[in-house]
Amino acid sequence: MRRGERFYRFRAKKRGGGRALPGGGRGVASPAAREAIGAVATGFREFGEELVSGDPLGWPGYPEKLARVRERTGEGESVVVGEAQVGKTPVVVVAFDFRFLGGSVGEAAGRRIVEAFERARESRRAVVSLVATGGSRMQEGMRSLVQLQRIADACVRAREEGIPHISVLRGPVTGGIWASLGSSADYIIGVRGAEVAFAGSRVRGEEATEGEAFTAAGKLRSGFVDAEAEPGEVPGLLRSAVELLRPAGGEPPAPPEVPRALGFARPPRDPWVAVMRARSPRRPRAEAYLEDYFERRVEISGDRAGGVDAGMLCGFGRRRGRTIAYAAQNGTANTAAGFRTARRLLELADRLQLPVLTLIDTPGAGNTAKDEREGVGTAIAELFCTVAGLKVPITSLVIGEGGSGGALALAAPDNLWVTPDAYFAVISPEGAAAIVEKDRSRARQVAGRMKLMPQDLVELGVVRGIARPKRRPARAIRTSYDAVRRWVVRGHSSGKEHVTKS
C-alpha cells in the first residue's frame, strides 16, 4: 500500500456465487458490472473485494452517499475485478459498475485495477476490461486523479511482459479512464451507440456539438477503436480476440508459411504483360489470400492517431493451431494512416511474440498534398524501422504491384517471395519513363529494362522464390466396369506367382 492511501474493509453481501445482478437485462451493455461479466465470461472468481474507498477530503455527505450506493448495488466499489474464462481462454476481468456513482474511479477502484493487471502478469492471462465510467471521482479530488498514472503504469508493465489487453467500451466511457485504460488497450470493441469521449456531455456543455465524434461509431471512423458491435455480437467477437491474442510462451515462433499463389500458375515472359497482370481487376486481391490462408481472423482498424486506410488490412488469424499477425495491402496507394496502422500491428505482434505475414500490393504510397500534410514519408520511415527491429520472424509475399518504397516498407529483408502475377520495381514504368525518357508513353519499353518480372527478381536475389500455385483437384477417370474388372483380375492373377507358401 502506497504511503498516504487509506482503504477500509467492506464486507459485500452474498451474491450467489457471482450471478448477475439486476441491471436492465442488457447483457454486456448493462450498467451492472456482474451482468456484463456474465454476458461474456464464465467461472468468475472475484478478488480485491476488501479494497474500498474512505473519505480522504472530508467531503460533506460523501460517507453517507457511499453507504447508500453500496446498499443499493450490493457492490463495495465501482470496479469489480476477478479471474474468469472467455470461451476456453483464462482471463483477468476488470468490470465497471455504472450504477456505483457513475462508474467513477477513486483510490480503491484504481487499486483494484492495478491489482488486476498484476494478477494478469503473474498468471500470464489477458486482461479484459468492460468499461462504463464517467471518469475520476470528484469527492476524492487529486487522490482520485492520480490513479490514472498508476493505472497507466500497470498497463505499461503488463505490455512489456507481453500481456494483451482487450477492452469493451460499454458506454458511456468518458474522462480519464478513456484516456488511460480504455484507449490504451491492444484491441478495442465499442458497443454500438455507446458514448465515447474524453469530455463527458456535462463537461462539454449544451453549446458543444453533439454527434458521431462522441460515439463508438465516430471513434471507429477516426481510427481509435478496432470494431463496433451490437451488444449481442460482442461475446463472439471478444471470444475470438482473446483466443487469438492470448499471451505467448515457450520457443520463438517459426516464420509463417508462404501462401500459395491463387492466380496464374506461371510467370509471364514479357515485362509489360507482368505489369498488366498485376494491375488486372480480375487478379486475386489481399482479401482472397487472407480467406484462403486463415481458418478465422480478427481485424484491427486505425492508426490511433485519427486515421483509417481501407487499403491496409491488418489483424490476427489462426492457421493450423497458431496465431499469425498480418498486414496486407489491398491494391491502393496507401496513406500515412495505413502505414501507421501496419506499424501498430507489427509492434503488437513483436510484444506478443507472434510471427508476421505481410502481403504486398500497392502502386506506391499516396502522393497528394493531403498525404504530405499527414506525413506519409515519416510514416513509411517509421514502418521501415519497425520491420528492421522486429524480433519475431516475418514472411512477405508480393501478390500484385510492388510499387517503390510504399511496397518495400512491408517487405521482409530476407524472406520475400512473389506470385507469378506480380512485379516489383523501383518505381512504376510510367514514372521511370517520365524521369528517364521524359515521356510517360514509353512506359512499355522502359519496363523491359527494369527487370521487374518474378523470375527477374529471383535472378537478382531480391526475392527467395516464386510462390507455388493452388493445386487443382484430380480429374475423375471415366472407364467402364468391365475394363476395371479385367484390370483387377489380371493384377490378382499375376500376383499369385509371387506368393510364397509357408
Automatic annotation (TrEMBL):
Ranges of residues in domain CoA carboxyltransferase N-terminal: 1-216
Gene Ontology BP, a term: malonyl-CoA biosynthetic process
Region forming the signal peptide: none
Keyword Metal-binding included in the entry's annotation: no
UniProt record similarity statement: In the C-terminal section; belongs to the AccA family.
Superkingdom of this protein's organism: Bacteria
EC number: 2.1.3.15
Enzyme class, UniProt record, top EC level: transferase
Quaternary structure note: Acetyl-CoA carboxylase is a heterotetramer composed of biotin carboxyl carrier protein (AccB), biotin carboxylase (AccC) and two subunits of ACCase subunit beta/alpha.
Compartments it resides in: Cytoplasm
Biological role stated in the UniProt entry: Component of the acetyl coenzyme A carboxylase (ACC) complex. Biotin carboxylase (BC) catalyzes the carboxylation of biotin on its carrier protein (BCCP) and then the CO(2) group is transferred by the transcarboxylase to acetyl-CoA to form malonyl-CoA.
Lineage: Bacteria, Bacillati, Actinomycetota, Rubrobacteria, Rubrobacterales
GO MF term set: acetyl-CoA carboxylase activity; ATP binding; carboxyl- or carbamoyltransferase activity
UniProt xrefs under PROSITE patterns: COA_CT_CTER, COA_CT_NTER
Catalytically driven reaction(s): N(6)-carboxybiotinyl-L-lysyl-[protein] + acetyl-CoA = N(6)-biotinyl-L-lysyl-[protein] + malonyl-CoA
Keywords per UniProt: ATP-binding, Cytoplasm, Fatty acid biosynthesis, Fatty acid metabolism, Lipid biosynthesis, Lipid metabolism, Nucleotide-binding, Transferase
Cofactor(s) required for function per UniProt: Zn(2+)
Gene Ontology cellular component annotations, sorted alphabetically: acetyl-CoA carboxylase complex
Pathways involved: Lipid metabolism; malonyl-CoA biosynthesis; malonyl-CoA from acetyl-CoA: step 1/1
Location of the CoA carboxyltransferase C-terminal domain: 257-483
Protein name according to UniProt: Acetyl-coenzyme A carboxylase carboxyl transferase subunits beta/alpha
A Pfam family this chain is assigned to: Carboxyl_trans
Gene3D superfamilies associated with the record: 2-enoyl-CoA Hydratase, Chain A, domain 1
Annotated InterPro entries: AcCoA_carboxyl_beta, Acetyl_CoA_COase_a_su, Acetyl_CoA_COase_Trfase_b_su, ClpP/crotonase-like_dom_sf, COA_CT_C, COA_CT_N
